[in-house]
Design a protein that fits this description.
alpha+beta; 7-stranded mixed beta sheet; 9 helices; 13 strands; about 35% helix
Length: about 260
Protein backbone atom coordinates (compact mmCIF):
# COMPACT_ATOMS: atom_id res chain seq x y z
CA UNK A 1 0.00 0.00 0.00
CA UNK A 2 1.20 3.47 -0.86
CA UNK A 3 0.86 6.69 1.10
CA UNK A 4 -2.62 7.85 1.91
CA UNK A 5 -4.04 11.27 2.65
CA UNK A 6 -5.31 11.37 6.22
CA UNK A 7 -8.67 13.00 6.84
CA UNK A 8 -7.05 15.49 9.22
CA UNK A 9 -4.78 16.81 6.45
CA UNK A 10 -7.33 16.82 3.62
CA UNK A 11 -8.74 19.94 1.90
CA UNK A 12 -12.23 18.66 2.71
CA UNK A 13 -11.51 18.60 6.43
CA UNK A 14 -9.81 22.01 6.25
CA UNK A 15 -12.95 23.48 4.68
CA UNK A 16 -15.09 21.94 7.40
CA UNK A 17 -12.84 23.26 10.18
CA UNK A 18 -12.93 26.75 8.68
CA UNK A 19 -16.72 26.75 8.41
CA UNK A 20 -16.99 25.30 11.90
CA UNK A 21 -15.00 28.22 13.29
CA UNK A 22 -11.90 26.35 14.44
CA UNK A 23 -8.79 28.36 15.20
CA UNK A 24 -6.77 27.51 12.08
CA UNK A 25 -3.27 28.79 11.40
CA UNK A 26 -2.87 27.00 8.04
CA UNK A 27 -4.97 24.87 5.72
CA UNK A 28 -2.11 23.28 3.72
CA UNK A 29 -0.86 21.66 5.85
CA UNK A 30 -3.72 21.83 8.34
CA UNK A 31 -2.38 23.48 11.49
CA UNK A 32 -4.58 24.34 14.45
CA UNK A 33 -4.01 26.59 17.42
CA UNK A 34 -4.85 24.46 20.44
CA UNK A 35 -4.37 24.59 24.17
CA UNK A 36 -2.46 21.76 25.82
CA UNK A 37 -2.33 21.74 29.61
CA UNK A 38 1.42 21.29 29.82
CA UNK A 39 2.45 23.56 26.95
CA UNK A 40 -0.27 26.22 26.87
CA UNK A 41 -1.48 27.47 23.50
CA UNK A 42 0.50 25.87 20.67
CA UNK A 43 0.48 25.18 16.96
CA UNK A 44 -0.70 21.61 16.43
CA UNK A 45 -0.86 19.33 13.37
CA UNK A 46 -2.45 15.89 13.23
CA UNK A 47 -1.48 13.08 10.83
CA UNK A 48 1.02 15.31 8.99
CA UNK A 49 4.10 14.03 7.15
CA UNK A 50 7.46 15.58 8.13
CA UNK A 51 8.11 17.21 4.75
CA UNK A 52 4.88 19.22 5.07
CA UNK A 53 5.61 20.71 8.49
CA UNK A 54 9.42 21.08 8.60
CA UNK A 55 9.34 24.83 7.83
CA UNK A 56 6.09 25.64 9.66
CA UNK A 57 5.53 26.88 13.23
CA UNK A 58 4.12 23.51 14.34
CA UNK A 59 5.07 22.76 17.95
CA UNK A 60 3.13 19.55 18.65
CA UNK A 61 2.67 16.94 15.97
CA UNK A 62 0.90 13.63 15.63
CA UNK A 63 2.97 12.14 12.82
CA UNK A 64 1.68 10.13 9.89
CA UNK A 65 4.77 8.10 9.00
CA UNK A 66 6.83 5.92 11.37
CA UNK A 67 10.36 6.87 10.26
CA UNK A 68 11.85 8.98 13.07
CA UNK A 69 14.74 10.61 11.25
CA UNK A 70 12.74 13.35 9.42
CA UNK A 71 11.00 14.45 12.61
CA UNK A 72 14.28 14.73 14.47
CA UNK A 73 15.83 16.60 11.56
CA UNK A 74 12.99 19.14 11.80
CA UNK A 75 13.76 19.71 15.49
CA UNK A 76 11.11 17.51 17.12
CA UNK A 77 11.46 15.24 20.12
CA UNK A 78 9.19 12.23 20.52
CA UNK A 79 6.98 12.17 23.61
CA UNK A 80 4.56 9.34 22.73
CA UNK A 81 5.03 6.11 20.80
CA UNK A 82 3.04 5.52 17.60
CA UNK A 83 -0.55 4.44 17.46
CA UNK A 84 -1.62 1.99 14.75
CA UNK A 85 -4.44 2.19 12.25
CA UNK A 86 -6.27 -0.40 10.17
CA UNK A 87 -5.92 0.43 6.48
CA UNK A 88 -8.00 -1.45 3.92
CA UNK A 89 -6.60 -1.56 0.39
CA UNK A 90 -9.56 -1.01 -1.93
CA UNK A 91 -7.57 -1.67 -5.11
CA UNK A 92 -7.40 -5.44 -4.56
CA UNK A 93 -9.15 -7.54 -7.16
CA UNK A 94 -11.15 -9.51 -4.60
CA UNK A 95 -11.90 -7.64 -1.38
CA UNK A 96 -13.92 -10.49 0.04
CA UNK A 97 -11.04 -12.94 -0.32
CA UNK A 98 -8.94 -10.74 1.98
CA UNK A 99 -11.28 -11.23 4.94
CA UNK A 100 -10.45 -13.68 7.69
CA UNK A 101 -12.51 -16.87 7.50
CA UNK A 102 -14.40 -16.10 10.71
CA UNK A 103 -15.15 -12.53 9.58
CA UNK A 104 -16.46 -13.74 6.22
CA UNK A 105 -18.62 -16.44 7.84
CA UNK A 106 -20.22 -13.90 10.14
CA UNK A 107 -20.89 -11.62 7.18
CA UNK A 108 -22.63 -14.54 5.48
CA UNK A 109 -24.87 -14.83 8.57
CA UNK A 110 -26.03 -11.23 8.11
CA UNK A 111 -26.63 -11.82 4.42
CA UNK A 112 -28.62 -14.99 5.02
CA UNK A 113 -30.75 -13.30 7.62
CA UNK A 114 -31.67 -10.68 5.05
CA UNK A 115 -30.20 -7.61 6.72
CA UNK A 116 -31.02 -4.77 4.32
CA UNK A 117 -28.44 -2.04 3.65
CA UNK A 118 -29.43 1.50 2.78
CA UNK A 119 -26.89 4.03 1.50
CA UNK A 120 -27.58 7.77 1.54
CA UNK A 121 -25.61 10.96 1.24
CA UNK A 122 -25.69 12.42 4.74
CA UNK A 123 -26.84 16.02 4.89
CA UNK A 124 -25.69 16.64 8.43
CA UNK A 125 -29.08 16.07 10.06
CA UNK A 126 -29.61 14.32 13.39
CA UNK A 127 -29.10 10.56 13.63
CA UNK A 128 -29.28 8.25 16.69
CA UNK A 129 -25.80 6.94 15.94
CA UNK A 130 -24.06 10.09 17.13
CA UNK A 131 -25.54 10.24 20.63
CA UNK A 132 -24.76 6.56 21.14
CA UNK A 133 -21.20 6.97 19.84
CA UNK A 134 -20.64 9.94 22.15
CA UNK A 135 -21.82 7.96 25.16
CA UNK A 136 -19.55 5.05 24.27
CA UNK A 137 -16.56 7.38 23.79
CA UNK A 138 -17.14 8.89 27.21
CA UNK A 139 -17.39 5.42 28.77
CA UNK A 140 -14.20 4.19 27.13
CA UNK A 141 -12.41 7.52 27.58
CA UNK A 142 -11.41 8.27 24.02
CA UNK A 143 -11.94 11.43 22.00
CA UNK A 144 -14.35 11.93 19.12
CA UNK A 145 -15.03 14.82 16.81
CA UNK A 146 -18.04 16.95 17.79
CA UNK A 147 -21.16 15.97 15.89
CA UNK A 148 -21.52 19.61 14.86
CA UNK A 149 -18.13 19.44 13.10
CA UNK A 150 -19.10 16.26 11.26
CA UNK A 151 -22.39 17.89 10.28
CA UNK A 152 -20.47 20.88 8.97
CA UNK A 153 -18.24 18.54 6.95
CA UNK A 154 -21.34 17.04 5.32
CA UNK A 155 -22.81 20.44 4.53
CA UNK A 156 -19.62 22.06 3.23
CA UNK A 157 -18.54 19.01 1.19
CA UNK A 158 -21.65 17.80 -0.69
CA UNK A 159 -21.58 14.08 -1.56
CA UNK A 160 -18.51 13.41 0.63
CA UNK A 161 -20.34 12.15 3.72
CA UNK A 162 -21.97 8.76 3.13
CA UNK A 163 -24.29 7.06 5.60
CA UNK A 164 -24.68 3.29 5.49
CA UNK A 165 -27.55 1.84 7.52
CA UNK A 166 -28.61 -1.75 8.23
CA UNK A 167 -32.27 -2.67 8.77
CA UNK A 168 -33.81 -5.77 10.24
CA UNK A 169 -37.45 -6.10 9.20
CA UNK A 170 -37.66 -2.36 8.73
CA UNK A 171 -35.96 -1.45 12.02
CA UNK A 172 -32.62 0.35 12.02
CA UNK A 173 -30.06 -1.85 13.79
CA UNK A 174 -26.62 -0.56 12.69
CA UNK A 175 -25.03 2.34 10.83
CA UNK A 176 -21.74 3.94 9.95
CA UNK A 177 -20.65 7.32 8.63
CA UNK A 178 -17.91 7.41 5.99
CA UNK A 179 -16.11 10.62 5.04
CA UNK A 180 -14.57 10.85 1.56
CA UNK A 181 -11.41 12.87 0.94
CA UNK A 182 -9.44 12.45 -2.24
CA UNK A 183 -8.45 8.86 -2.96
CA UNK A 184 -8.99 7.94 0.69
CA UNK A 185 -12.12 7.51 2.78
CA UNK A 186 -12.42 7.33 6.56
CA UNK A 187 -14.66 5.08 8.66
CA UNK A 188 -15.62 7.89 11.00
CA UNK A 189 -18.49 6.86 13.29
CA UNK A 190 -20.28 3.54 13.75
CA UNK A 191 -23.10 2.23 15.92
CA UNK A 192 -25.15 -0.89 16.43
CA UNK A 193 -28.05 -2.07 18.57
CA UNK A 194 -27.85 -5.38 20.45
CA UNK A 195 -30.00 -6.88 17.70
CA UNK A 196 -27.60 -5.54 15.11
CA UNK A 197 -24.67 -7.14 16.91
CA UNK A 198 -26.48 -10.48 17.08
CA UNK A 199 -27.21 -10.34 13.35
CA UNK A 200 -23.63 -9.27 12.46
CA UNK A 201 -25.07 -6.11 10.90
CA UNK A 202 -21.89 -4.03 11.46
CA UNK A 203 -20.04 -6.38 9.11
CA UNK A 204 -22.71 -6.01 6.46
CA UNK A 205 -22.48 -2.23 6.81
CA UNK A 206 -18.69 -2.15 6.54
CA UNK A 207 -18.73 -4.52 3.57
CA UNK A 208 -21.30 -2.37 1.77
CA UNK A 209 -19.21 0.73 2.42
CA UNK A 210 -16.00 -0.90 1.15
CA UNK A 211 -17.68 -2.07 -2.07
CA UNK A 212 -19.20 1.32 -2.71
CA UNK A 213 -15.97 3.20 -2.07
CA UNK A 214 -14.05 0.90 -4.40
CA UNK A 215 -16.67 1.51 -7.09
CA UNK A 216 -16.24 5.27 -6.60
CA UNK A 217 -12.50 4.95 -7.23
CA UNK A 218 -11.14 5.27 -3.71
CA UNK A 219 -7.89 3.42 -3.08
CA UNK A 220 -7.68 3.32 0.74
CA UNK A 221 -10.23 2.93 3.51
CA UNK A 222 -8.94 4.23 6.85
CA UNK A 223 -10.76 2.23 9.54
CA UNK A 224 -9.21 4.23 12.37
CA UNK A 225 -6.96 3.37 15.27
CA UNK A 226 -6.47 -0.16 16.56
CA UNK A 227 -6.18 -0.66 20.32
CA UNK A 228 -5.65 -4.30 21.23
CA UNK A 229 -5.31 -3.49 24.94
CA UNK A 230 -8.54 -1.60 25.59
CA UNK A 231 -10.72 -2.47 22.58
CA UNK A 232 -9.61 -5.92 21.47
CA UNK A 233 -12.99 -6.81 19.98
CA UNK A 234 -13.06 -3.72 17.81
CA UNK A 235 -9.46 -4.37 16.75
CA UNK A 236 -10.40 -7.89 15.61
CA UNK A 237 -13.41 -6.49 13.76
CA UNK A 238 -11.30 -4.00 11.80
CA UNK A 239 -8.40 -6.30 11.00
CA UNK A 240 -10.63 -9.26 10.18
CA UNK A 241 -12.15 -7.26 7.33
CA UNK A 242 -8.86 -7.63 5.47
CA UNK A 243 -7.32 -4.36 6.62
CA UNK A 244 -3.59 -4.17 7.30
CA UNK A 245 -2.15 -2.86 10.55
CA UNK A 246 -0.03 0.24 9.93
CA UNK A 247 1.95 2.29 12.46
CA UNK A 248 1.63 6.05 12.51
CA UNK A 249 4.44 8.36 13.57
CA UNK A 250 3.84 8.99 17.25
CA UNK A 251 3.52 12.34 19.02
CA UNK A 252 6.35 14.85 18.82
CA UNK A 253 7.07 18.21 20.43
CA UNK A 254 9.29 21.05 19.19
CA UNK A 255 9.96 23.79 21.72
CA UNK A 256 11.56 26.13 19.19
CA UNK A 257 9.77 26.34 15.86
CA UNK A 258 11.68 27.73 12.82
Amino acid sequence: MGPMTALQQSPEFARALTAYGADIASVAPVILRRRFARYGRVMFASRAVPSDIADTPVQILNGETPCKRPYRAAGFRQIMTPAHIAQLDLTRDDLRAGMSGKWRNRLVKAERHGVRIRETTWDGSAHPMFAAAKTLARKRRYGTYPTALLSTFAQINPNDALLFEAYDRGTLCAACLVLRHGQTATYQTAWSTPTGHALQAPRAVLWAAAKRLAALGHEDFDLGTVDTDHAAGLARFKLGSGAALRPLGGTWVRLRAP
